[in-house]
Amino acid sequence: MADMKPEEMSHPPMDQLQGLEYCIDSNPSWGEAIALGFQHYILCLGTAVMIPTLLVPLMGGNAHDKAKVVQTMLFMTGINTLLQTLFGTRLPTIIGGSYAFVIPVISIIQDPSLVQIADDHTRFIMTMRATQGALIISSCIQIVLGYSQLWGICSRFFSPLGMVPVVALVGLGLFERGFPVVGRCVEIGLPMLILFVALSLYLKHVQVRHLPILERFSLVICIALIWVYAHILTVSGAYKHSSLITQVNCRTDRANLITSADWINIPYPLQWGPPTFSADHAFGMMAAVMVSLVESTGAFKAAARLASATPPPPYVLSRGIGWQGIGLLFDGLFGTVTGSTVSVENVGLLGSTRIGSRRMIQISAGFMIFFSILGSTFTNRCYINVICFLFCNFSVAAGRFGALFASIPFTMFAAIYCVMFGYVGAVGLSFMQFTNMNSMRSLFIIGISLFLGMSIPEYFFRYTMTSQHGPSHTRAGWFNDYINTIFSSPPTVGLIIAVVLDNTLDVRDATKDRGMPWWARFRTFRGDSRNEEFYTLPFNLNRFFPPS
Predict the structure, then answer these.
(1) pLDDT tens, 95-143?
(2) Which of 205, 213, 447, 478 has the fewest CB within 10 Å, making it most exposed?
(3) Is 441 strand, coil or helix?
(4) What are the distances in angstroms from CA 1 to CA 4, 8?
């Protein structure tokens, strides 16, 4: 056999990811787009239920309060997603709840002036108002950085080399929400993981009427099958004598949202009352806003790759951050208990289904808004037959219809996250194709950024679990929140280390090694003709808001 030439052994770098069925501005049929949008709607709701489940009881809220917060979060997820896909980056991204805000919110919950309130419901309302005020003030950071183009200017210091650890850690840094959660109920989580991989990859060529149904809709199919299996275990008494932790993670009847939810409840601004403002609370929340900004930046770049689009230019990135700031302002006005960021699991689903259509995500946002308000009226009818019953269980909103979704054990979502977060992490690693990986400088920057990006947040997490407070534990609560929040985020730590090293270590002789010649075309809106195709505003709005 003749020796292969070097160019035949290597894979040339590609601006756009190949192999997708539909890219950002191409659309499947309406029926398929609606089904895929519903699937994205299901996936994003795991986080929408878990964050209020964690925070609302600590605030003093009851089951009804939790159901109302879930509904509000889903409603605002739909609104923010529509704004981002229409006027922001225009990438197929869902803007959902963020765990980055948990630390400053818990700090507000533990404020002595709130802890001393005896009545639980009053304490919940006052804590919610304090959280709203902090979100409203801190949202100004993203609004200013976005619309002033300051974040776009900062992004000019981001090279492909520097973005490798940032985008990779957006996915890989979420490992705590993967198999560690699956292991809490391995008899449900592991079958879910194996079945999803089998259907979406090994059986992806199975078609029904020329549609690869298992590849496109494996998430819905797997959730339906494994939920039935989990429900059989529950009703048969398999967990009757198990520990409380096992029952919470395995049973399908532990949710208390169904009976607690209102029939129809439309979220509206200031529904919890007028916000209260505190400098300490606002400064602590600003750290979470900065973390959300970094995580969204990495997720936007991953979504562009998985939607077969070009990397978003700095102008588009700033525009998206500005609209995300508007979303944070809305979160504060409506009272979602947490801020928002790009939903990483839904970015991963773009790669799993090989469909990056913008319309699909907008339909998903429509599901969130519609079912969070009116879905409850269909609940009783859903008990007519098994199919409708399952449909209700997979369509959560805070109304009774959507509340049935909470009966799905979170372990099942964790199994899906193992795949979705892996996709996003791999996209980050794929940026190495534009850099010189035969350079010791490149190896050092990527290696230490990835390692410390996971090691430092893990140290902060373990320290907090052991001591019940973060490593930063001074008398200045806002300073503690700032340090503990920033360094608990893998992408943020990775960005700080990678960008600093990449812009200070032998910069003059490393332009090609960093991948900057490849990145140069995408540093301006008109640097590449494809940018206008992917990122131009709708309704001919570019006439009034021309790219800078």
Answers:
(1) 999 999 999 999 999 999 999 998 999 999 999 999 999 999 999 999 9
(2) 205
(3) helix
(4) 9, 14
